[in-house]
Design brief:
Number of helices: 12
Strand order of the largest sheet: 1-2-3-4-5-7-6
Strand content: 15-25%
Length: 352
């Protein structure tokens, strides 16, 4: 299908787009500053202008593109986006459910996403996904962290344990999120050993292994020395507790091959990454690695940037190319690079 791809600038909406897009759709497209996600219009030209168009965005260094809305001849617009995604070598196309019905999405080859556990957070009430290589990836529930610092607790409590079968979906709430964070925190961040210890305490039947290729305290580089000192004491205490509970702390760096091997064994990996590549600021952040497709690892990210036009649809079932994940999971602190991860196996017996 012949199509054109042009950057989308809210200040200069193309006339052919104005002729086919409803005013409320254009209002939504222009309401957020989507610049960090390279907003583009994929349009199908026809006699006298465009017959179909879709606004698409996607996080940098990822392997998906998201349709915000499709207008005009919607099936043609979506077909053009799928062709564009294939040409870009992407693994996935997503579709926010602002204006599309489940029936129309299914007719275009899309599968509905499970709605978030605690509401859409201002995003669409529905979302859809189409894997371009026919992949089948387990879909965990999605829950957005309720604070700026509980990403580690959310990935462990609300995602990893749900897949391991240790926690019913009805137990996912803010009280559970903050309770686990309180047990794992190094104030306010969750460092790898403390997070692994908290997971073992919460679910003793779930095998847990920590990978941290440094013996120095981590996630403290932004703090003045007096603030570092007492947090370092807590991190040493976490290592002592890990030894007491029998939680292995591997000093070797977990490779991306190791991450994929764990996923293949139906295990899950909580991985510490920097948000510099995907969001533009170098902040440590926990994500869950739970699936794999050719060339990419599939993540759950418990946070999304609504101000940039993101929604839970972006952060859920998020494919990241191996090379991108390799780079973003090497953090730098005090001129040293390290990788932090927590491997969570399937529960060996029912937890109480």
């Amino acid at each position: 299908m012949r199509s054109v791809v042009v950057p989308f600038d809210p200040a200069e909406v193309p006339a052919p787009l104005r002729r086919i897009a409803p005013p409320d759709v254009l209002t939504r497209w222009c309401a957020a500053d989507r610049t960090p996600h390279a907003p583009r219009v994929v349009a199908v030209p026809g006699a006298g202008g465009w017959t179909a168009a879709a606004l698409v965005t996607g996080r940098p260094q990822t392997a998906y593109v998201k349709i915000v809305d499709a207008v005009g001849d919607v099936p043609s617009a979506v077909a053009a986006v799928v062709a564009y995604a294939r040409a870009q070598g992407l693994a996935q196309v997503k579709w926010e459910g602002w204006t599309v019905s489940a029936e129309d999405a299914a007719g275009a080859g899309f599968t509905p996403l499970r709605p978030p556990l605690t509401g859409s957070g201002g995003g669409p009430g529905a979302g859809y996904v189409r894997w371009l290589d026919g992949a089948e990836v387990p879909e965990p529930p999605y829950y957005r962290q309720s604070t700026d610092f509980t990403c580690g607790a959310v990935t462990a409590l609300l995602v990893a344990q749900a897949l391991a079968g240790a926690l019913p979906r009805t137990s996912f709430d803010r009280t559970a999120e903050l309770t686990l964070w309180r047990d794992a925190t190094n104030f306010p961040a969750c460092e790898p050993v403390g997070l692994g210890v908290a997971v073992r305490r919460a679910w003793p039947a779930s095998p847990v292994e920590v990978f941290l290729d440094t013996d120095r305290p981590v996630l403290l580089g932004h703090l003045p020395e007096p603030e570092r000192a007492w947090r370092a004491v807590l991190q040493r205490a976490s290592r002592t507790e890990a030894d007491r509970l029998g939680v292995p702390v591997e000093t070797r760096r977990l490779s991306l091959t190791g991450v994929r091997d764990a996923i293949r064994r139906r295990e899950r990996v909580l991985l510490l990454v920097s948000l510099a590549a995907m969001q533009g600021y170098d902040v440590p952040h926990w994500v869950l690695c739970h699936g794999a497709v050719p060339g990419a690892v599939v993540l759950e990210d418990p946070w999304f940037n609504a101000a940039a036009g993101e929604s839970w649809v972006d952060a859920h079932l998020l494919p990241v190319p191996d090379a991108s994940l390799e780079a973003m999971s090497l953090l730098t602190e005090d001129a040293a690079r390290f990788r932090g991860a927590v491997r969570v196996g399937r529960a060996e017996a029912a937890d109480t």
